[in-house]
Amino acid sequence: MALVALKNVTKAYPPQGRDGAEIVAVDDVTLDIEPGDVYGIIGYSGAGKSTLLRLVNALEPATAGSIEIDGREIVGLPERELRGIRLGIGMIFQQFNLFGAKTVAGNIAYPLKVAGWSKAEIEPRVAELLEFVGLAEKAKAFPDQLSGGQKQRVGIARALATSPRLLLADEATSALDPDTTQEVLELLKRVNREFGVTIIVITHEMDVIQSIATKVAVMDGGRVIENGEVFDVFSRPRNASSQRFVATVVKGVPSPAELAVLRERHEGRIVTISFRDSDASQAQVFVELANAGLDFELVYGGINDIQGRAFGHLTLAIRGADASIDSVLASIASRAEVTEAR
User: Cα separations (Å) of 6 from 53, 78, 140, 335?
Assistant: First the structure.
């Protein structure tokens, strides 16, 4: 059974002004998020992804549709019952949202106090979480004494305080530099792996999805336009918006304009070989071309790795006898997709 099940979920806001139109932020979204998933939801600004997250956490009510958390319908529940459900959902934010007047330990302890834990229960739990996120020596520090990455570690520890089954991360790395981003993503991987926490990651950065997610949904105009295993969406994006996102981390097939530049710079036949977890490897292709006595060079593209599965596109300029090139390309085509520019 899905831990989070959304069916035909819509969130619409009333018209602004006398002649304004209704604003539909989330439009008929259906998604199943299984226990143990790291589910990425990606989209450009205004796509509806952050609104969708607030619906899952019941911070806003859905206009229509069904949202089940661990088998329980939350749409229409009174606030007193939603408070109990939220205890099982952790939340981390782009801007950390720490209490500036509380110490690191005090920030982590806060949700435990709200949940009614005793001081004797809170102290060892806070110490355990500080150790887990690597900030044991910062217990008495205040947020303004921390780096951005340390603040986000405190945010993660606070979100884990009540041992939630579900963790929601809203642009949790957008305010961080690349190195710190990777550290935070590695910590989230540990949370998922060691505690079995299901994570929903909202982001506009495709490399974040590549680094951490097992599944992904692409949102555009409030709708989910594509979703599935990250490898499948990355290697064969069907929608134009998905293709634009993938292009930010994967060099695809050169455009006609790029091909024209490649032809000016490189002699030979321009051939693109597409790898999608196929039987052919980059090294095998190069060895086969070399054994045929062909001269070649890589002129465009690259190979990516998603959870041990390789995909990508290599565009080569190949020089030699046409018959030899045709023979090698026919052999490679039995194991990978081969496209020759005409």
Answer: 11, 19, 41, 39
Kindly report the pTM of this predicted structure. 0.85
For residue 44, what are its two tokens? 């450009």
Write out pLDDT tens, residues 31-81. Answer: 999 999 999 999 988 899 999 999 999 999 999 999 999 999 999 999 989
H helices of 224-308, in order, are: 230-235, 240-247, 256-265, 282-291
User: Per this entry, what is the length of the chain?
Assistant: 342
Domain of residue 311 covers 256-340
Both 236 and 267 in a single domain?
no
Structural domains counted in the chain: 2
236 lies in the same domain as 262: no
Contacts of 50 (CB under 8 A, 6+ apart): 170, 171, 202
Residues 86 and 160 in one domain: yes
Mapped onto helix, strand or coil, the DSSP state of residue 202 is strand
- Tokens at 126, concatenated: 């806070």
pLDDT at position 107 is 96
- Other Cβ atoms closer than 10 A to 251: 15
| Residues 243 and 132 placed together within one structural domain of the fold | yes
Q: What is the mean pLDDT of residues 234-243?
A: 84
**Quick one: 171 and 319 in the same domain?**
no
The contacts of residue 138 (CB under 8 Å, 6+ apart) are 104, 130, 145, 146, 150, 154
In angstroms, rounded to a whole number, what is the distance separating the alpha carbons of residues 223 and 29? 6
pLDDT digits (tens, 9 = 90+) for 276-317: 776 667 788 899 999 999 999 999 988 887 777 878 888 999
Summarised one tens digit per residue, pLDDT across range 94-148 is 888 899 999 999 999 999 998 899 999 999 999 999 999 999 999 999 999 999 9
Same domain, 319 and 231: no
Q: CATH number of the domain that 283 lies in? A: 3.30.70.260
